[in-house]
Here is the input.
Amino acid sequence: MKAYLNRRYRFSASHRLDNPAMSESENRACYGKCNNPHGHGHNYIVELTLAGEIDKDTGMVCDLAELDRFMREQLIGPMHESNLNQQRLLDGEIPTTEALSKNIYEYVKKNFRKADLQRVRVEETAQNAFEFHAPNASHRF
Amino acid sequence: MKAYLNRRYRFSASHRLDNPAMSESENRACYGKCNNPHGHGHNYIVELTLAGEIDKDTGMVCDLAELDRFMREQLIGPMHESNLNQQRLLDGEIPTTEALSKNIYEYVKKNFRKADLQRVRVEETAQNAFEFHAPNASHRF
Amino acid sequence: MKAYLNRRYRFSASHRLDNPAMSESENRACYGKCNNPHGHGHNYIVELTLAGEIDKDTGMVCDLAELDRFMREQLIGPMHESNLNQQRLLDGEIPTTEALSKNIYEYVKKNFRKADLQRVRVEETAQNAFEFHAPNASHRF
Amino acid sequence: MKAYLNRRYRFSASHRLDNPAMSESENRACYGKCNNPHGHGHNYIVELTLAGEIDKDTGMVCDLAELDRFMREQLIGPMHESNLNQQRLLDGEIPTTEALSKNIYEYVKKNFRKADLQRVRVEETAQNAFEFHAPNASHRF
Amino acid sequence: MKAYLNRRYRFSASHRLDNPAMSESENRACYGKCNNPHGHGHNYIVELTLAGEIDKDTGMVCDLAELDRFMREQLIGPMHESNLNQQRLLDGEIPTTEALSKNIYEYVKKNFRKADLQRVRVEETAQNAFEFHAPNASHRF
Amino acid sequence: MKAYLNRRYRFSASHRLDNPAMSESENRACYGKCNNPHGHGHNYIVELTLAGEIDKDTGMVCDLAELDRFMREQLIGPMHESNLNQQRLLDGEIPTTEALSKNIYEYVKKNFRKADLQRVRVEETAQNAFEFHAPNASHRF
Here is the structure.
């Protein structure tokens, strides 16, 4: 019987949506004002869901302080007050929030091993959020 | 590997809960003050979840502007500042939020084809929300 | 030296904006869809601000349980799940949120005497709020 | 075809994280400041998700007034403005929010029979939430 | 006796804090990561407070549809999904949120005459907000 | 012409309301369940409002990093995950949120000199907030 931990982080960043393989007018048609050359930005919220047994000794799924240190040092710190088009995490992908949620999912899945990542949710605005999770997750949301 | 887009819309409407097949006292026992003949109302929030591949060219699951246009023209616009007992969408069903979420789900599933609707959530108050999704959804929440 | 207590209450109600002294087309021009004959509704939030000395014995400005009882019995209870056009509090005034905040202000000012009402704020939606307070309030917001 | 009802409750409580089977320094290493002997506290939010058919006569999944009465009398009332280390619900378990979500899940599953409990979510802070649900739930979140 | 209308608008934008009259290291010391050459961004919320008599015929302080049209056409539309360093509204000032609130205040005060602007509040993040209002406002907040 | 900076901080703490000068039954009558000997707790939000000229060189009212360092080291850090009855800041006063807002006001007013403190607001729950400010503040809220 597993429990699920949800943890939220915040960062502020800018981005510009532009695909160099498309023409200027195709980019404008596809991305609208998000294609303007000077970019725009958001206050992003990242929510992780991790599954684990409740440890009999501690009563906890995982050590939150350890998770926070990992996230702040490796992901949130570098992205906060940055431009996402410059982020190595995205490695040249167009910095849509879809791509952001996928890349955060893959990075945490590979590098944080103290609990089992199930889902990454990234809120771009109060109206908009994207989620990513593996198709074979034992637990789905 | 699919990503999931969540998009929120708001509208304000009134409703009265009353089943004409039940007696006045049965209606009062069933619905309490929600059965008062003059109705009451809410600020509703509708959240859709749609699944899709992240398009390689655009980095997006689906064109949000297109989804917004569909929702505003066909559902949110007609319901905003209306009385739900008058809505054709509900077609004579008692306008509970359960019925609202089911009918929005069925309408979007049938009429919006650019991404795969997974779930409709309707928040009636800050304490209350109802969700609807097909039993055979490939991804469940 | 005074402290200020802010207390929030919630209720859900419907209303229709219509001035019988105006023609049908004037009403439509003035109120738009809010004039539709079947009404619409909101989840309202009422926030009171009351001033008072911090009592030396209790450390409190006023007994919150007493304020809550007053508000629930005399205002929030009767308005919750009602139609505002029927409310005696508004006494035939057009049930705009401006009128609601003014009438709640006047009712509480006159009838609750355990602390000094400074302001009433009524939130109609997440985008909209109205406030009312006397012009000669010793403390202004 | 089932619909899902989500309902939220709030309570304020204190707790201290301390495992009597561990030494003082082990407890301090494990729980940090949450191990301080005087405790600390939170405004908790409990969200239940229940599944059910939409009743043909009433349009509802379950009678919310009945659910609210059950929750307030048996769980939220006793926990509000209490210390969780004293709660019989937790029966001597360390009052982490993981344990709280598991015990609320088990209690509601066993004792509320008017709809089918799917999930319990407990929010400890705006950054933190825990969820619990049975591994063989017919519907997963 | 006046009532006060509060109205909220949202836009997403990027900015870079950099004073060309200061050296690179002075800019870095003053603005930290907000000085990075690629900028970052936010979801901004603008809240206006306007005072007015409650009109005897309409029950309203001012026509919200008219205020919304003014704000969307002249301020929110041009700023949404833009870079604030490019905005003519700021006219070369460093685009801090302090400067933004002051310039929005001055623009609305001068150009919207249907109600009396009292205050502009700009929220940059959930932790941060700036306000501006004239020192001789008849009503203060 | 001054601008106003609002900055929010969060901490979680427990408290017990009990006046040793009153009898057990008087305490129970006065504080209800908040008088239970094991205490309870909250997620508190502290919002400061500070006034200042917008600096011509930096475009800012005051250096937020400096304010954050002051608040975290001297107030928020010591109170987070603590019991307020043990806090020296309150110096034996009954730890109501009224007393908390007054003492935070007086401490910041005396010890932080880079901008002019106007107001302290402490939110105890989503329904409840207390504010404190000096009667002769040049700007009032």
Notes: Chain D has a mean pLDDT of 93. Chain D has one domain: 2-133.
